[in-house]
Amino acid sequence: VTLLVLPAQAWLCLVLVGVLGWGGQRLRGREALAQMYAVMVLLAAATYVSLGPFAALSADPAFTEDEAGRILAGFAIACSVMVVSQVLRAGEQIEATSVAAAERDSLQRILAATTGVAIIEAGQDGRISMFNVGAERLLGYDAADVVGTPLADLLPPASQSALARRLSVPADWLAIAGALAPPDRVGTEVELVGADGTLRTHAMTLARVTDERGDPRGFLSTSEDVTDQVASRQALEDLVQRLREVDEIKDSFVATVSHELRTPLTSILGYVELLEDSAFGALGESQRRAVGKISDNSDRLLQLIEDLLSLSQVRVDSVYGKGGDTVVDLRDVVLGARAALSPKACRPGLAIAVDVGLVPALVMGNPARLKQAVLNLLTNGVKFTPGPGDGDVGICLRREGPEHVISVADSGIGIPASEQEHLFTRFFRGAESDGRAIQGSGLGLSLVREIVEGHLGTVHVQSSPGHGSRFEVRLPVLSSVDDQELVERGAAGTVGTVG
């Protein structure tokens, strides 16, 4: 109405509105409100004394005095609403600016304090936009020199190509960055070139940076220098490889020497048997005792040679997967081991109980090796059980869930807890074995472990001094076919047996 009726003075109203709007934006809240109140008071006073843009309304016959007052009040209310809203909005902007400044200062302090981590930000075009103190220290560059340069300059072409091949992407930094961004690529090893031209290996984690609308803005990488750790790891792997080669050479040497020793020893045992049979004439009592000692010690030496050869061959079979593709009934294994037990080991009066059940216990493996493992456990139990009538040995075969269990228990001298963790170590002999002069090479139980673990099984011992020992071998049940089919296989003769 003012613009229509009093166009000249209406411009003064617009100027007042502009001044009040500027004050709401630029002045503090109280100052802007005070400015508004002052302008409204001056405008009302001027109108009261017939001055100002609204003074002529009272004299205009088109407006009554009340209407002129309402127009002035409406103008004042409109200006108040505008100023208050501007003050509130300005306050929000100031608060947001303060929060942003505080966050920026905190981030700057964190970046300045993070000297052990290289933090580098690059835009969507691949150019560096932020290079923290840690990146300067680890790579040797000055931030002012690298900001604005392509991040790909930190990756030599050979390293970039190798990394692209590992990630199966083109040898382009943006493609590489996109492949490194997923969470499963945390700590990817990347070779970066330092200011002195040396390559340093960094464990890098890359994350995408987006704006408030979720649009990609670039990438942020954090990385640590792991060059020394990688070198140590490589040296350790090389050492392990060399030790493995030395171990293989040692096993080959032991096997070769054992083969060479077995041939003359077999000949010696042959002549000893001829002497015992009086093939070269009758022996006196003292001569027969001497020949008996030669025979016993030759048997011990031959058993040691056989154990060494078996241990070497078992390790070779385990590495190359030989001989483990036969369906074996563990009942035949246990009964075969009992039948193969040396008569010399079975002292008169020593009870040996065997329980194999009536249901086939089928596994996949090497029947000869499994028989050898059970025989070693059985021989061990007999060896460490007291004399006639004082103890017994039992071997039991049963099934527990997904495993077949072969248990060999004796009532012998037992094993101290301090020695049990070393039982399956090669050449280990307990204090009781040495104290009682019990013969043995210390290879039997280590051979058992090699064989059982080669069949994906486990072997455990429970023992206490004076209360005997119990060894349990657990082997996985053959589950590729059902029990009825396995029984039919056994009946058809396709199950491996042990004589």
Distance between the termini: 120 Å
What's the rounded overall pLDDT mean?
77
Secondary-structure class: alpha+beta
Give the fraction of residues assigned to helices.
40-55%
Q: Name the overall outline.
A: elongated
Round the Cα radius of gyration to an integer and report it.
Answer: 47 Å
Q: Within the largest sheet, what's the order of strands?
A: 2-1-5-4-3
Largest sheet: 5 strands, antiparallel
Give start-end ranges of low-pLDDT stretches.
1-7, 489-499
Number of strands: 12
Please provide the ordered H/E string of secondary-structure elements.
Answer: HHHHHEEHHHHEEEHHEHEEHEEHHHEEH
Quaternary status of these chains? single chain
Tally of alpha and pi helices = 17
Beta fraction of the residues? Answer: 15-25%
Provide keyphrases for this structure.
single chain, 499 residues, alpha+beta, five-stranded antiparallel beta sheet, five-stranded mixed beta sheet, 55% helix, elongated
Explain this structure:
It is a single chain. With 499 residues, this protein is an alpha+beta fold. The protein is built from 17 helices and twelve strands. The chain has helices at residues 2-5, 7-26, 29-48, 55-59, 65-113, 133-139, 143-146, 157-167, 173-180, 227-276, 285-320, 330-340, 367-383, 417-420, 431-435, 444-454, 483-492, and strands spanning 118-123, 128-131, 188-193, 199-210, 216-225, 326-329, 351-355, 362-365, 392-400, 403-410, 458-463, 469-476. The strands form three sheets. It has a five-stranded antiparallel β-sheet with strand order 2-1-5-4-3, with helices on both faces. A five-stranded mixed β-sheet has the order 7-9-10-12-11, with helices on one face. Strands 6-8 form a two-stranded antiparallel ribbon. A hairpin with a 5-residue loop joins strand 3 (188-193) and strand 4 (199-210). Helix 11 packs parallel to helix 16. It is elongated, with a radius of gyration of 47 Å. The protein starts with a helix and ends in a 7-residue tail after the last helix. Mean pLDDT is 77; it is low at 1-7 and 489-499.
